[in-house]
Amino acid sequence: MPSVTGTNAHPCPASAESVPIYFCPKSAALMKATTSILRPFVNIVQSRAFNSVLSLEPSGPTVKTEIPGPKSKQLIAELQKTQNAQSTAFILDVDKSIGNYCVDVDGNVLLDVYEQIASLPLGYNHPSITQVFTDPKNLSQLVNRPALGVNPTPQYVKQIEQTLHPIAPKGMDHIQPMMCGSCSNENAFKAICIWYAEKQRNGKPHTEEELQSTLLNKAPGSPNVTLMSFEGGFHGRTIGALACTHSKAIHKLDIPTFDWPIAPFPRYKYPLEENERENKKEDERCLARIEELFHEYNKNNKPVVGAIVEPVQSEGGDYHGSKEFFQNLQRIIKKNGAALLIDEVQTGLGATGKFWAHEHFSLPESPDLVTFSKKFQTGGYFAKKEFNPKQPYRIFNTWMGEPSKLLVLDAILKTVKNENLIENTRKTGDVLLNGLKDLSKKYPNLILNTRGLGTFCAFDMKNSSVRDKFTTKMRNAAVMIGPCGDVSIRFRPALIFTEKHANIFLDKMNEVVKNF
Amino acid sequence: MPSVTGTNAHPCPASAESVPIYFCPKSAALMKATTSILRPFVNIVQSRAFNSVLSLEPSGPTVKTEIPGPKSKQLIAELQKTQNAQSTAFILDVDKSIGNYCVDVDGNVLLDVYEQIASLPLGYNHPSITQVFTDPKNLSQLVNRPALGVNPTPQYVKQIEQTLHPIAPKGMDHIQPMMCGSCSNENAFKAICIWYAEKQRNGKPHTEEELQSTLLNKAPGSPNVTLMSFEGGFHGRTIGALACTHSKAIHKLDIPTFDWPIAPFPRYKYPLEENERENKKEDERCLARIEELFHEYNKNNKPVVGAIVEPVQSEGGDYHGSKEFFQNLQRIIKKNGAALLIDEVQTGLGATGKFWAHEHFSLPESPDLVTFSKKFQTGGYFAKKEFNPKQPYRIFNTWMGEPSKLLVLDAILKTVKNENLIENTRKTGDVLLNGLKDLSKKYPNLILNTRGLGTFCAFDMKNSSVRDKFTTKMRNAAVMIGPCGDVSIRFRPALIFTEKHANIFLDKMNEVVKNF
């Protein structure tokens, strides 16, 4: 495993004559033409890390035009000719964006607390990621994408051992890379169904009837098993994942789905410390219904083989569940012979102040499967060994992940470790959440239910139109922030978001709510 | 759009002192350490194209060990500790592989007619792809993966217009990139369901009942519509795609699915010219059943909103359908108010001798949607404009494709055009198919039903154990070849596979079957 951030990092000179490290020195013409474009990268590569990338940041956000500005609007109109581009916030200038600041094509510089829907752990143009693409050792891995189920590379074998295995939750020695969050959940669910059926089959091989019937989409080969999910949960948009998604109607409308059990997920009153008794009752209500649903579906020959749950319902409105809720959920699932799949696609990799958000729950044992994507750049899942199918080609596809993404993940993980970014996130999260609580006291009708773990914070507003107006005003005050659920604002900054950035944010928000 | 293969291509010097173009000239230490590894790339970058990459190839395949060899076996055993690695053929050395030849970690050099399950259009380490990763203009696009539904880049807007739009089948102006073949099919299917429901709704908005019921996975919001697929078809392995997949039981066993109509796909007798009447009857049998299934499902309130079909059933055993079959299929689908989705994930991008395989069918009009992935490096679909949902967030996910893959696709498409690779594929396909037919005459009990379009060829063997033995023997004769279906061998060489390679292949195969 090459050290991409350690002492072997490539020391590119800092002088004005220096050229980017991926650059042929003899090609003067091309060099001249591109030197000015490349200047930022030269600087980035010189700097090693966290503090250095922050030193390249602007001193704060600046607005030049309304957002989206005229250039963004023109490009959005172009895009609109071939696809639905109504969800586009603005057009991103990836060359100029740096650290916690994204820059749009109109030259607006926004403090980014959304980070491409929570998918950039180190912000923009971080040197540790740039180095992955400029390190000559990596070139052939970038150029040749293998079918990992047939022809894995020696580098991939190492990546599984040295990049992914060390971050596996305890007791989860089965590792399956995938392409994205949805397909990670789809395949983890398939792994659960296979595990469950093998238990029922008790070592016997598939029957001829099973082999024939499954090709016709019939039982017993394609059994009527079900997966429990939660009201307000989000697990992706492919048809299996979508059957477990219940955050917004527009995600699901008009698409066929399964009759699978849908359980309530706690809806707490805030502040938590003033509503302990009521919130405990809410846990009990949800847990009782979960027990009931297992009973109902199992009785009706629609066995519940597992449950999929987010540690924090992230798209659905940043709803948290208590430690006790999750501990009891695991207990009920085990009692019913089912599997617990925790979806850490949005929560994983540090933003909650722990590497995995489910570590906050002190579960008696690890979940059975944990899915990931977004900040990891690659999808995939960890699972206990019994979820690794015995036969090949059951969990399989052409690519099954991508070594080049694992190169990036390796660089990210080293940076997170070397620069104590999870500790940073805990500290910054305190500043951010306390600041939000102060603002909530100051504007109690506007800012409701402040909550969070690490920098994974949120608050609610009175209704969706107020929330949407707030999002727009913040964006025009040069802060890129995202909504979730019907009335919530979610914080998804990078792990390099520091107290300084939190304070810039809080000042900007104070200004916006003051004049709201 | 930067020209990556045209006259602006970077002219790196050829002398022994030259360094790779992505390399800092001042870092002598690192340069020394890696120069020998990088030598092939220096050479590759010097050469421009097709002929040049071929000039770097070895003169033919060579075997040093049994395959998989001892080093492969050791690494497969490592991988087996954390995942099911039984499908692994050998461990690939991507540094040493070049053009049509893949090299394994034991130093075996194999002629590759499988190309990572049909996913490498230009073979290994083609200079036009290498240049994508060494062109400094591309660095920030490689480093910063945007959420394209929220923050697309100006480069992406151009890629849609200049890379994807020019290859859209006629009349298909809606363009939606995705991540892989399965999620392309899943989302294309969603687009069909939305299109169908909007037609039924006739301009009216969603009702409150629809909005509420869909969150509970119930009708009318989640309607009981169905998608027709075909016996032997393969469309992916996520749960929606898997419901349309009927190629092998092991892909589907134990996973819940939908009661959707499954139609027969023609099974022809070969040679075609001697079985015209019988094959016409086979078309009629299939088409009659398709009509029946529409009637049955529509009558039972499970409206068939579309059908998904491969131009050649590729995973299921390389089954071809006639021009007349596809023309009539389209007619029946239109008559029933449904949509025709052609899955070109494996067939698209030239291997059949046309850019899209469905061009062979002279359909009266374009299909309604066409999905792609594999050789394109990115997934996605083209569709008629009416399949572009009116509201945002209906076809949406975090990444929605990846600009860096579109950079690679652009380089591939320019190379395919500049080097006439589709014409090459037609010519090579003639040599290959005629050679297979000659071998079939020589060994009529061993090689059955030779068939193909371009280099997308196949033949059958007596049974699966003979077929598997043949695959192993070919691999140990240094030819990487893939099976499909129960008894078939499929050819999926790169588009740079020439007559010379076809003849090397045919000689090797002749040797193997002679001693079979």
TrEMBL record, chains A, B:
SUPFAM superfamilies: PLP-dependent transferases. This is (S)-3-amino-2-methylpropionate transaminase. InterPro entries: 4NH2But_aminotransferase_euk (IPR004631), Aminotrans_3 (IPR005814), Aminotrans_3_PPA_site (IPR049704), PyrdxlP-dep_Trfase (IPR015424), PyrdxlP-dep_Trfase_major (IPR015421), PyrdxlP-dep_Trfase_small (IPR015422). Its cofactor is pyridoxal 5'-phosphate. Belongs to the class-III pyridoxal-phosphate-dependent aminotransferase family. GO terms for biological process: gamma-aminobutyric acid catabolic process. It is an enzyme of class 2 (transferase). One of its GO terms (cellular component) is mitochondrion. Its EC number is 2.6.1.19, 2.6.1.22. It comes from Didymodactylos carnosus. One of its GO terms (molecular function) is pyridoxal phosphate binding. Keywords: Aminotransferase, Pyridoxal phosphate, Transferase.
